[in-house]
TrEMBL record:
InterPro entries: AKR (IPR020471), NAD(P)_OxRdtase_dom_sf (IPR036812), NADP_OxRdtase_dom (IPR023210). This is Pyridoxal 4-dehydrogenase. Residues 19-321 form the NADP-dependent oxidoreductase domain. The lineage of its organism: Bacteria, Pseudomonadati, Pseudomonadota, Betaproteobacteria, Burkholderiales. GO terms for cellular component: cytosol. Signal peptide: none annotated. It comes from the Bacteria. One of its GO terms (molecular function) is oxidoreductase activity. It comes from Paraburkholderia ginsengiterrae.
Amino acid sequence: MNAHEMRALPRSGLKLTALGLGCSQLGGLYRPMSSADARALVDAAWSAGVRYFDTAPYYGYTLSERRVGHALALRERDAFTLSSKVGRLMRPDASVRPGDDGWAEPLPFRPVFDYSYSGVMRSYEDSQQRLGTSRIDILYVHDIGAMTHGDRHPHFWDQLVAGGGLRALAELRQSGEVRAIGLGVNEWEIAVDAMNEAPLDAILLAGRYTLLEQTALQPLLDHCARVGTAIVAGGVFNSGVLAGNGKFNYADAPAEVVKKVQRLSALCERFDVPLPAAALQFPFAHPAVVSCVVGARSVAQLQQNIAWLEQHVPADFWAALSNEGLIAANAPVPEGGA
Ligand SMILES: NC(=O)c1ccc[n+]([C@@H]2O[C@H](COP(=O)([O-])OP(=O)(O)OC[C@H]3O[C@@H](n4cnc5c(N)ncnc54)[C@H](OP(=O)(O)O)[C@@H]3O)[C@@H](O)[C@H]2O)c1
């Protein structure tokens, strides 16, 4: 697998590089990132052949979109693919403080959920302005679902389905303004529900199809493969524990996760395979997975991630991973080499 390999979304024909740059870190997730470092990261991704960039209005309360737009401004627009998200309108708010929602240096805008027709259209137009482009290739509905909204989920689901949010996306897709529509979520259940409401081109599924959990396999991924909905795998390190930072789902990893990581690490040591390399390569074995968007904190992390993705991992390792029950019995594994 080469990071710069182009892979098509079956329903739209849009192509993504196997590795996409996840840009929540450019919004200062937990720790600040300077503008110069953000620029250097996007430039390094470009030099390595990465041509897919994922951002959202929420990341850094608009900071990530501004930085991504600025960093890509002089690039040929047809040469890269950009995804952003809808569902939160960013309202000016002088009370925003460093650390709000985990953003180290948020800009003074506060998110207000809105999945309605007008909310989606407004969000899309605001993103175009911040990104400095007339074209956003993929629009994902961001964080719809009970995990984010709890008791309020039925209200926001109603906005999306009956209130016209999905219709707005379908219109943008139909007119050719955006090339692909879908969901960007941390829970697979809501993606199944959404696919019952409308045909989706892509689902950015974060943290739910990784070496640590494959619960999304049969209900979602296999169905996506059948109907041609692409999976863009996000959070393949489960926010970092599989790359060594101790975080799982953006919090300190609980004991059972640490134990599972230790078992995976022991297997990796036996075969002399870096755990993050296995974590990056594993999702690609599923036919629905088109691209992995990986968040990097620095140019060094990005380059390491490319090396991990492209590293040879022997077939015996993948066989042992299955045979020793470390992943679901029916989860496909990469073919690997001899
Ligand atoms: N709902 C959604 O649509 C949704 C949800 C989540 C993610 N996403 C997208 O998916 C992208 C990736 O997800 P994610 O960043 O949350 O999770 P992730 O890719 O699983 O983890 C990223 C973290 O792993 C660590 N890491 C990465 N490369 C490393 C390396 N080479 N060496 C050591 N540590 C390394 C870094 O942790 P440290 O920062 O601690 O160094 C980094 O912040 C996001 O940027 C976003 O674009 C979308």
